[in-house]
Amino acid sequence: MAAPRLALSLLVVMLALVALTEGMRGAGPKKCCFNFNTKVVAKERVAGYIKTSQRCSNPAILLKMVTGRQLCVKPSVQWVKDLITYLDVKAAPGESSTL
């Protein structure tokens, strides 16, 4: 009688450990970039950007275009740095308006 209880207890503990480790791992990144756009993109064509997850193998910036497309670009490229600075300043709250 003790053997089935012990086996059942071990099974419950093992399932709890698996559930705990899977829950701690969490969901993977939603979008990673493996191919990168190398052509300069006009700032007027970009609506915004996001940085990809640190869990992605390649650090990247995902540009959200006004057309709805998304482009992957390398964050180390100078024109990308300039574009990010421009977008950050453009979106900064408290700036005076020209209205």
Automatic annotation (TrEMBL):
Name of the featured protein: (Atlantic silverside) hypothetical protein
Keywords in alphabetical order: Cytokine, Secreted, Signal
MF-aspect GO terms: chemokine activity
Subcellular location: Secreted
Pfam families: IL8
CDD domains (UniProt xref): Chemokine_CC (cd00272)
A GO cellular component entry from the record: extracellular space
GO annotation (BP), single: immune response
Domain Chemokine interleukin-8-like: 29-87
Signal sequence coordinates: 1-23
SUPFAM superfamilies hit by this protein: Interleukin 8-like chemokines
Domain of life: Eukaryota
